[in-house]
Every structure is written in structure tokens, then in C-alpha cells.
Write a structure and sequence with these properties.
Blueprint lengths: L2 E4 L9 H12 L7 E4 L15 H15 L3 E5 L9 H7 L2 E3 L3 E5 L2 E5 L10 H10 L2 H8 L3 H21 L9 H10 L4 E4 L6 E7 L2 E7 L6 E7 L4 E7 L2
Parallel strand pairs: 1-2, 2-3, 3-4, 6-7, 7-9
Antiparallel strand pairs: 1-10, 5-6, 8-9, 10-11
Helix pairs in contact: 1-2
Bound molecules: manganese (II) ion.
């Protein structure tokens, strides 16, 4: 038995090589796992389950295939694709997970997150996150015509890119205090997340006991995943050409 974790693929029409690498990954590595956990930002942008594209159709079809081959797929919202909704899940058989989610995996209490909640120094972003995750905000946005949603998303993206370029490096990473607090609150010694695009295995102490924070990387030049079985939990990488 094994579980596989990925995040931050940022699938988009502009990067067909990432989509290709992902489809191959589904056919090979993911197929060998009983569970695939996608910890957010699978898509670069998602403005509603009603928007059909070649990319989204292909991914949906392949998820159904994978599920029928007995790999359960779990997904968490990222900051880019937090509007993935019930319809997408029904069409694909994907189970949506809350952020954070505490699960017992191979006997080990594990906390799964996208990671953006841990970037507490980015106050402006956390404010936007609060606003946009409100059910009323979501409903109002999703009720707008597709063209308008696309326009708003583009404007937000431009604003966000500009803001990001002005933010210091440290603001863009997780805050160690937030990590300690959430791991202590949930009483876990293992935290897996993505979002920061800083793949690494961090060793730390929680309540004086050794703990680990494993950060998944984004998919671009390389692909990153975690392979977990009853013996090990490893961060792995392979090149995308
Ligand atoms: Mn993210």
C-alpha cells in the first residue's frame, strides 16, 4: 500500500509540457498508489465548474480513468483553484478535503494543508483569502457571466503579481510561529503542504518531540511528489523536459 502527494501543478494551456508530464505521472506513479492527494493549485486558474476547456475535460476524463483503476483521489483547494466545486467532484469522483485536514496515515497523525494559511506575514493576502472564501462572495462571483469572471480574475492576477514582486522573500514563506502553532493545536508530528514553491524536508521540534514539515514543489522544470508507505515518506523529484 502507498499514498502519493502532489501540489502546485498550476496546469494551464501555456505549459502543455506540464500537463503531459502530469498525464504520464497519472499513468505510471499515481496508478501504483492507493490514494492520490492533490494539495491545491492543481490548476493555474479555476473560475467555476461550468467553464469547459480542453484542458479541464482531459484532466476530468483521466481522473475518472484513474479512479476506476482503484486509485482514490483527494483534493484540497489552493489559492488559484479554490472555486473547484461539487460539480467537478461529482464528475471526477474526487473527494474534496478541508484545509487543514488531519488524517491518520499508516498509523501516523498527519496534517495536510495547501500552505497559504501559514503565510501569516502576508496580511494583505490573508485578508483577500478571508473575503474570497466567504460563501456569499463565492456565490456572487459564480453567478456572474463567464466573461466577467475572466476579466475579474485577470485583474486580480495582475494586482497580485505586482504586489508579490514588491513583497520581501520572507513574507512569501510560511511563518515558523504559524507552523508550530498549527502542529501543536492538531497534535501532529508530520505536516505536508505546498504553495511556497520551496520544496524541502524540514526537521523541527513540536512539544520537544522530533517532527517534520515536508514542502512539495511546484511543477515546471521539475515535478515533485511525496511517496508514502508503511516504511517511509519521501520527497521525490523528476525532470520535466
Ligand atoms: Mn498556492
Amino acid at each position: 500500500m502507498a499514498y502519493c502527494f502532489i501540489s502546485d501543478l498550476h496546469l494551464q494551456e501555456d505549459k502543455p509540457y506540464v500537463t503531459d508530464a502530469f498525464l504520464t505521472f497519472l499513468d505510471t506513479t499515481a496508478k501504483e498508489a492507493e490514494r492520490l492527494y492533490i494539495l491545491g493549485d492543481l490548476f493555474e486558474v479555476w473560475i467555476g465548474d461550468d467553464l469547459k476547456s480542453e484542458l479541464s475535460n482531459e484532466i476530468k476524463e483521466r481522473f475518472v480513468l484513474l479512479k476506476n483503476r482503484s486509485t482514490s483521489i483527494f483534493a484540497m483547494h489552493g489559492n488559484r483553484d479554490f472555486l473547484i466545486g461539487e460539480k467537478f467532484c461529482e464528475e471526477t469522483g474526487v473527494t474534496l478535503l478541508d484545509d487543514p485536514s488531519k488524517l491518520e496515515l499508516f498509523g501516523k497523525d498527519t496534517l495536510l494543508m495547501h500552505g497559504d494559511l501559514l503565510c501569516t506575514k502576508d496580511v494583505a493576502y490573508q485578508e483577500f483569502r478571508n473575503t474570497s472564501r466567504n460563501p456569499q462572495w463565492k456565490k456572487e462571483f459564480l453567478d456572474k457571466p463567464i466573461e466577467e469572471r475572466e476579466k475579474i480574475t485577470q485583474e486580480l492576477r495582475t494586482k497580485s503579481k505586482k504586489a508579490t514582486s514588491q513583497k520581501e522573500d520572507e513574507i512569501m514563506d510560511v511563518s515558523p510561529d504559524a507552523v508550530e502553532e498549527i502542529m501543536t493545536t492538531h497534535d501532529v508530528k508530520l505536516l505536508i503542504h505546498g504553495h511556497t514553491h520551496r520544496p524541502h524536508v524540514h526537521s523541527l521540534k513540536i512539544n520537544e518531540a522530533p517532527a517534520q514539515r515536508i514542502v512539495l514543489g511546484d511543477w515546471d522544470k521539475s515535478a515533485w511528489y511525496i511517496w508514502m508507505d508503511d516504511e517511509s515518506c519521501e520527497l521525490k523529484q523528476f525532470p520535466i523536459t
